[in-house]
Amino acid sequence: MSTLRVLSATFVLSVLLAGCASLSKDECTAGDWKGIGVQDGMAGKPASRIEDHRKACSKYGVSPDLASYQAGRSIGLKSYCTIPSGFQQGRMGRSYSDACPSATAPAFQKGYSLGFELRNAHGKLDDVESRISYAENRIDDLRYEIASTSCASGKEGKNCRRVLRDKRDEIRDLRSDVTFARLEILQAQANLELVRERVISEMSYIAPGFVIEAQYQ
User: Fold this and answer.
1) Are 69 and 33 spatial neighbours (Cβ–Cβ below 8 Å)?
2) Spans of the chain below 50 pLDDT
3) 3-state secondary structure of 176
4) 102 neighbors 68 (Cβ within 8 angstroms)
5) What DSSP designation does 130 have?
6) Which long-range contacts (CB under 8 A, 24 or more apart) does 66-70 make?
7) pTM, whole model, 2 decimals?
């Protein structure tokens, strides 16, 4: 490996490692551990997050104030460990690290499961639509390739004609796939409507006043 490549790889690695640090030097030296705890709580960070901060700040000779951090994190978790917050996290497909205390975890998890279920229903529909889009684009490409190809006669064009035949067979298979996928779309759309109605109904019951924004429905 050349010296330039080694230096480039070293630089990229150093950037990645720097990006892994949970706190910057300024954040470490500022010492606002309660504020950092609030932010981590609101983001649903696990209790072990303090160890990441301890490691990040050790290089600057700073140790976290555990009591202040825990107090702040508890405040932040009050806004995170709720049914609406759980719904939003699940709908966006974010992971849950068991950050909520036992008293509020069930509420968060209920919202999370409803949000995640709605996300899955959308995902199934998106997958089918993507398959159809890919197949239709592939068909267009194949038709263009076939129309643009002129095979020679006799033995010289034998392989060319075989390739064209394979492309026509692929078009036939893709059209069949599209036909079945369009039926799947109808099923996925019907399923999404059922899931959406049930989720909205359950959320209105367990979290009165919470309105699911249009982009999350």
Assistant:
1) yes
2) 1-19
3) helix
4) no
5) H
6) 66/33, 68/33, 68/34, 68/37, 69/33, 69/34, 69/36, 69/37, 69/40, 70/37
7) 0.79
